[in-house]
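Internal ticket #5521
Category: modeling
Description: The requester needs a full-assembly model to guide mutagenesis choices. All entity lines are attached below as received. Residue total reported by intake: 390.
Assigned to: D.W.
Attached entities:
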Amino acid sequence: MEALRKKIREEGRVTENDILKVDAFLNHQLDVAFLNEIGKEFRRIFADRTFTKILTIEASGIAIASIVAQYFGVPVLFAKKSRSQNIDGDTFRSEVTSYTYEKKAFTITVSKKFLNENDKVLIIDDFLAEGNALKGLIDVVKQSNAHVEAIGIVIEKAYQSGGKTLRAEGFDIVSLARIAEMKNGSLTFVEDEEE
Amino acid sequence: MEALRKKIREEGRVTENDILKVDAFLNHQLDVAFLNEIGKEFRRIFADRTFTKILTIEASGIAIASIVAQYFGVPVLFAKKSRSQNIDGDTFRSEVTSYTYEKKAFTITVSKKFLNENDKVLIIDDFLAEGNALKGLIDVVKQSNAHVEAIGIVIEKAYQSGGKTLRAEGFDIVSLARIAEMKNGSLTFVEDEEE
C-alpha cells in the first residue's frame, strides 16, 4: 500500500535502537481518516471473503480493527492483556511471550460468549514481528473452534520470523507494508510486486 | 440517548455485585454500527463546538473515541496506562487511583509531541463513576496548556461522585446514559429531561 509506505516515511521515525515509532498516526495519536484508507484497502484485498468477526488485541489494535470493521459490517472483539494467572472458566486464555512489552510474558483473554464454532475470523493487528501476539490470538480462535479466515497486518517486519513461520503453517496473511531492513535510523521496504 | 438505554437494558447485565457488564457491545466485543450512532449523537450535541483533538484512555475508550472522531474530523490521542514510575521527559504523566482495575494505582502517559496550548480537547470515555481516570486526563491536558472544551461519556454512574464533582468545577460533561441506581441485579436510569 503505497500511501502507507509514504505515511511511514514521512511520519514514522526509526530510533537509535532501530525501533520504528509510528505513534504520530497509528498507535498513540490516531489519524482516523488514514485508518479509513487502511479499512478500504483491506476491503479491496478481501473483497470476495466472508468474515463474521474481527479479532484484535488491546491496546493498539483496537482503533485499526474498529475502523476496518466498518468496511465489513461485523463486530470487533479485542483480546485483553492480563498479568494474572486466574483460572476463569468463562474465558479462552493464551500465554504470550512479549519482546516489546517489558520483555515479560502476559496472558490474553477472550470471553467464551463472543467466539464460537460458527465464526469466520479476520485477525487484525498493527505489527507483525516475531508473531507472538498473533500466535496467541490464533490459539484463542482454535480453542473456540472458530476458523481463522485471514490475517490483516498494517506493518510487518519481514526480517523477523513471525510472518514466514505462520505463512508456512498455511495462514493467509496480508501485510500492507513490509519492512525489509532497519538500520542506522532508516528503513527500506520490501517491494510489493502485487501493486 | 434512548437507543443507548435500550441497548444497555437488552444487552447489558448487572452482576451479583452490582457491576454493569456491557462487554457485549462496548468494551470487549464492539458493536461498531452502534458506536457510529454514539458518534452521531455526540456530533448532534456538540454541533456548534470546535475541537482539535479527542483524548481518551486505553483500552476501552479507544474504539469509541476512534469512531466518534470520524464525526469531528480530528485525530484521537489515547493515554497509555503504565505501572512504571519511569521519569520520561517526553511525556505528560498523571497518577490515577483505580477502583476497578485491581484496585491499584497506575500512571497514565501522553507524549508531549501530541498535545499543546493550541489544542481544544474533547475527552471521550466509556464510563464515569468516581472520575479518577477522567481527573488524570484533565490533569494531562492542563500540563500541556491545552483546554478541555467538553467531556463526552457513554455511561455515567450518577450515584457516584465523579460527575457531580467535576461539573461543580465547571467542566461541560455530557453523558449519553445516566444510571440512577443498581441493585438486586437490575438498574434504573436518570430520566433525561432534555430528550
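Resolution: model delivered.
Comment from assignee: Chain A has a mean pLDDT of 93.
Ticket closed.
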